[in-house]
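Marked as duplicate of an earlier ticket. Keeping the data here for the record.
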Amino acid sequence: MAGRSKVKYVLTDEDWKRLLPLTYFRPISFLRVGVYTIKELWEQALGTQVGILPIDLHKELFGSANVDEQTILIDSRVVPTEKVFEAIRGLKQNEQLVSKDGIVVAKWGEPTTTKEIDEALIIRHPADLIRYLPELITLGNWKDSFKPLEQTDLCPTIFGSVDNIYVGENVRIDPCFIDTSSGPVIIDDHAHIMQGAMISGPVYIGPHSVIKMGAKIYGPVALGPYCKVGGEVSHTIFQGYSNKAHDGFIGHAFISEWVNIGADTNNSNLKNTYGPVKMWDYVEKRFVDTGMQFLGLVMGDHAKAGINTMFNTGTVVGVSANVFGAGFPRTFIPSFAWGGAQGFTTYNVDRALDTARRMMARRKVDLTPEYEQLFRKVFELSQWERWWENKSK
């Protein structure tokens, strides 16, 4: 197609609030959906680097692409399945691609013509990251980056095919159990599987992540880089740099970065009534019916859960919330909340930053001035969530 070689692709974030609290600290396209983030999947599908057009909140830390007449804008919530990818590749100037319910999936220039796409996988709510995990966890060209495990190299007990275990560089696998009957197990560079762990695919274990002794990992599970995971984990994404090192159950969950989950913490992922789960919606500012029978927990960046914390079905924990104490806390916990079932106060932003700085230093990551500025802006933006502050005014 004439002029197609000059086309560039940019992911846009107009509807970022619909994916809060996960998008307070990152653009939508940086969210993990499996082995890869949305942005990484688009770059693989298109065979080129993809720019981002973030909201003002994120520009200082993440930069922003230039947009001109050769730019195709893509809604960051759209996952590049084959049908969507082919439809976008077929766009011409001044055309737009729209989903059945009117979402502009992609556009080139000022649209004068509209094409409709029947099937577009769009992440409309944090619950969708959990809903679509089974089909997205192994999306992408990961077989180009990993090699099949040679059974003579390492020493797991394998159920299913050894050919369905893939490893990166400098992987350590102690005596453990790996079952590939239901999907592959992908172990990235410098990851470590400790003794007695039991892993049932599909599972992705990110770079430098550790599966602790005796852990039970039921796929689909995707762990980003530098995670420590023990106890029982099922149908869950860890964005990265987060810890659940001890016993306790986390299931049908999305755990953001710099989260620490204390020993014997559990979440419910199924109501006693077996009915559909409602979850907090930041745009509607109310609980909405997800239509999902299994749905556990969404935790924002820098959130912490003390030992023996109990989260009810469909709980949302805001960023930098510190939850502890007996009983079930509310199923929507505001950002920078301090407390639990007995009530909340505000987690002072300077104290929260000190905690974040110490945790990040343990992973040899600096809390930069730009990140601190973002942190403080998020504290201000999330003030509306903290109802106790609003009542006192």
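See parent ticket for discussion. The chain has a mean pLDDT of 95.
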